[in-house]
Amino acid sequence: MIHANLFFPERIGSYFLTSCSYTAIAINKRSISATVIRAIGRQRTIEQVIEQPIDQTQTIPLNERISAALRELFEKVPAKSTIIDVITSNACIGKVITVPLMSPEKIKLVVPFEIESALPFSLAEAAVDSIITATNSTEKTASVFVVATPKSLIEEHTLLFAEAGRRADRITTQVAALYNIITQLPALKQRQQALLIIDIEHQTTTVMLCLRAQILAVRLINRPLQDLHEQGASEQFLNEIKVTAASFMKQYNQAATIMLCGPGATESGISQLMEKTLEQPCEIFTINSLIMAGGIKSNAALTQKQFLTVAAALPDGGADDFNLDQQIAEQQQATVILRQTIATLSLALILLGILIATRILVVRNLRSEIAASEKETIGVLRSRLNLTAPKGTSLDSINKLARADIANKEKIWSSLSTQSRFVMLKVLDELSKRLNRQELGLNLQKIVISADTESLLLEGTVKDFEALKKLEEQLRQAPLFKNIPHLQETTFSAKITLNIAGETGS
Asked: In the predicted model, what is the mean pLDDT of residues 223-247?
């Protein structure tokens, strides 16, 4: 089962952001082999190796026995594991073709028509997929490995899995799994000499000629492994392999290192037979070699029998998106698009929510600032203009009171005689010169000059009694003021006689 986070990818390249499980399943006549691999970061761990026997009761149809075995198998694997069905290659056609260089999507559309003439069944009855193994930007061509199999086989496997309660997320084949290994192991991918790989499985053998992860040629030999142990069949089998190998190396003018893999590679006497037939040494690529070369950790005991399912389950190779069931591929693509659409809409809604919340917070803060400013302004107007207004009076109302107060004072000022204005200005000038307001902490709240301009009333406050004493002294030093009273409180009200004539005379 493919699972994906709506907002973050499972992986970036070969680095897995979340823990993901992959289960490769290969169905044989007597048993079902399965390997479960978990990927997290760059670590790959083989968690389970399962060999599920198939009931051999001949009175029960084979498909029912296989589905029953699959049901038991699925109870042992993780529920959210990606299921990869590895079908045998004996019903497959493999071919390497060259096509004009274009996008992978367009190549997949063109490929079926390029191999139609090579198919033993009609294109309408074929399930086809391909892997781009190399591109040539100078010649603008792409080398493509194509696999085709009858749709009936795909439908048969789909039905088997459905009856067992699960559906395969991908249907791959032996030869694609083999290529999966080649492309992710540097020891194989970076070889400068051509590599002739002979993968000997129980029901079919693949002969593949590769050069630096490019498939040059491939042939699927539909002979069971058992033939190599039977005298007459063994000679025919070995001769097919010899002719195929010689033909490939001659066609591409490549001397190749020969590598044996699969269950047959480690069976007694097989490697010696191959070396004698091909007349050159053969390397044996065992399951343990694969584990060590790939830096894979294993929590399960492995045998050469698991070579195919381990190869298919590894998620980093060049064939990890190969899928012969195009219906599944199309559904997965539709699912990806749906998830991306949901993710986009979700992100848009989240951003819209953030913008709305931000606007609400800004407006709320702005209103708080306005309210605080209004409160501060009301306080200042009340204290400076000595306004009397009920608690909770609005700023507009206070402004009206302040304007009325100022208008009233302007009216009073306009009504004063020239002499009275002169005296007022003289008093203000004298006070500003004589009194050190900062030193005294002086806050003059009211200055009243009598109608006959002979006396002055000062009301205000100073910071302390020391300042009160200094205030008296500074007032007495002013020639304009006389009869300075003795001040008793820091909040004072002092009536002072004005010496207008004396000031003028001086």
From this structure: 89
In sequence order, the β-bridge partners of residue 148 are 93, 128
Task: Report whether pLDDT(6) > 70.
Answer: no
pLDDT of residue 394: 80
- Helix (H) or strand (E) holding 208, with range, is strand 205-211
Which residue has better confidence, 232 or 30? 30
Amino acid at 242: K
Per-residue tokens: 2: 């493919």
Cβ burial of 409 (10 Å; 0-12, 13-18, 19+) is: exposed
> Residue 279, by phi and psi: left (phi above 0), alpha (psi -120 to 50) or beta?
left
Query: How many other CB atoms are found less than 10 A from the CB of residue 279?
Result: 8
16 closest CA partner among 29, 27, 3: 3
Average pLDDT over residues 36-56: 94
pLDDT, mean over the chain: 86
Which positions ≥6 away from 347 have C-beta within 8 Å?
A: 7
Q: Kindly report the backbone phi and psi dihedral angles of residue 257, in degrees, each rounded to the nearest multiple of 5, phi listed first.
A: -80, 135
H or E, element range at 303 = none
Which tokens in the block code for residue 19? 């823990």
CA distance 309 to 286: 13
Here the tokens at position 267 are 């069976």
Q: Could you tell me the pLDDT band of residue 229, with boundaries at 50, 70 and 90?
A: confident
Amino acid occupying residue 413? W
At 51-64, the pLDDT tens digits run: 999 999 989 999 99
Answer for the pair 48, 77: CB distance below 8 angstroms, yes or no.
yes
Please tell me the predicted confidence (pLDDT) of residue 370: 86
pLDDT digits (tens, 9 = 90+) for 84-107: 999 988 788 889 999 999 998 899
* 321 touches 171 (CB < 8 A): no
First to last CA, the chain: 108
**Lookup: tokens for 357:** 């919340």
Cβ(111)–Cβ(322) below 8 Å: no
Q: Are 185 and 294 in contact (CB under 8 A)?
A: yes
- 3-state class (DSSP) for residue 155: helix
pLDDT digits (tens, 9 = 90+) for 321-353: 899 987 655 555 556 566 667 777 888 889 989
Q: Which residue, 187, 212, 190, is CA-closest to 289?
A: 187
Question: How far is residue 64's CA from residue 489's CA, in Å, rounded to a whole number?
Answer: 110
Q: Are strands 170-173 and 481-482 parallel, antiparallel or unpaired?
A: unpaired
